[in-house]
What we know:
This protein is mainly α.
Amino acid sequence: MGVSTSTTLRQLSDNEIYAYKEGVSNIDLTLRDDNNGDFSLDVATIFYLRMICENTMESKVLSAYEKAETVGKLLPDIPVLCDILRKHLGLLVVSKFSRDAHSMKEEELAENEEACIFEDNELFICTQLLQICKVADLKEEGSRRAFVSLIREMLCSLETPDDLIECCVRALAVSHDTEVHFIQTISDVLYNVGGKDSLNSDADEKSSSASEIVLEDLRHLRSVSILSVVLESTSEHMASNSVVQSFAGYILPAVTSPNAVVREGGVCCLGKFAILSDEEMLGDFKPLLLKIIGSDAEKMEVRAQAALAASDLALRFESVLEPLQEEEEENEENEKQELCLSSLVYDMMNDNKTALVIIAAEVAAKLLFAGRLRDPHLVARLLMIYFDENFSLTSSTEGDDDVKEVGSPVRLEQILSLFFPAYCMKSTEGRDALLSCIPLILAMINDKITKRRRRKGSSWPTAKMIEYVCSIVDIADSRKQEQQELSENNSHEDTDNSTSDEPKESSTASSALMASIAIALFLTKESHNLTVTYLRTLCKVLGSAYIDVESDEPSKLAALKNLVDDLEVAIEDPTSHRSVEKLVVTLSSVELDVEDPSEDEIDDESGDESGDELIEAMKKATLCDARQSGVGNNDCFLSINDDNLSGKEADDFDEENETSMKKTMRSSRGASLDKSEGSTRRSRRVLSQVN
């Protein structure tokens, strides 16, 4: 673990601090030559020399003349620095080549470790020298040309370590006064990669003895390595430059290379190149990236780079998210296969490879937060990944550098811990998406439990997940309410008269109520397909929900009560039934809404049409029964005889009898409805109230 200099100095005494300052001030930073006339450098000297030069050039106290004079005293001329760099680079290349040529035996492990340490030191010295050259005086044309010539040789040589490529490209950019000249130099370098302009002719002869395929792969890999650094710093107005557009000739062969490492570098470079291009040229790159993402036969690293590149393009060009229809050549009927970035990312998040799932999750979180995607299924899958034990690796031994890399589980956990609250607070759509993903989460958990029923460790923290969603939504609602109250207080004097007559916004249901409705709906539909353990867990969560029946939205409360009534009948497990009864008691004071008038009208119309004929038949049957019985007791029955009634009395009797029979038919029809039909109608009302 690194300790800062300020922390160390606090622990020193006054005498020790004074001795430290004296020792630092008296360090001889001049580069001395040995008996052979060569300059000797070590790691500590070159690092301290670079820091002194950078602090001098960044000083706000010294003038430009004083800066140049101070750096001139510390550093030799540019040609001398180039010779030092060439010397240490040669030592590095020779050591790497000799170590790779020998086989690894047990007795050579110690020597190999010493060689690795030596190579690390030489690589560090070369890196520091390249950075020192950037702060040196390159205004003199002869010195500048010598430096540019050396950098070009290093970039063209295939023996130059890849760790030096980025430093070389950035140093080459500093040595040019305009971006156009720099791009032209890069074009010349790409043309001569692995050619006659290489740094070490002996190394090139050894490379020429290798197979042509390996040499071609090395050229492609070096070209895309250079272009990846160049395209990161290329300005947007250079996109139309013909030289920049010619870079596609080096990128596309790398993307289609049979070597997976070369393809990975080519896809990464293609994404950076496509960002600089216009939307008209996007049609050339979009199908290629989507095919790579959706190819199961492709290497995981290549698919991951294609997904990252496509997500960056989607942030700039929304058309990347539009489905792409492609005709399959193998199909005789020429069926069209639809490729869509959102569906491809979702499929990657369900993959068995952990690293691919992590990268797909980062892509989904980025596009959701940017507002490019609005799919609750992606949000639900992110929640599943966030609570999955396989991705919860905060106790892992990854270093700080590994955590910062894309594809790290710890990095993903940190991203998601910030994503969900920020996504919910950003907009109402994020809040609704989180709430609407609860039934999706329940279905996903049920699917995983069903598939892993015979395995151990298949339990999921269902209650914790639902509680987490509700807590985030509650925080977002409270923040939004505070902002509204603050804005109303600030503008109260100006808007009091204008807004006094406007209707207030309808209150929204609480997160606990909406989550309870989602759980009840899921249980109503899937209770017969759930395991006993999972059923009891959901019923326990539902029964322990805090529902404020006095202040929450009445229509949603009525909907929840209807669902709970149906659920109470459907559940047969006693433990689950006792859990649901707690919520039944809580909702006992909630008044159900009157049945939808539209349904009653429909029932009345259908009843009138089908019941008129039945009423007439019942009238005739009643008259016949009265005649046959011959009973004329006025205390119990009316003497129903058409002959004994006048015309007006007969009409009044018919009207009253018809009305009473309609009521009888309607009540008998309602009583004869079975439990399934009543549940269906109630579910329709609940869904309409929830919506």
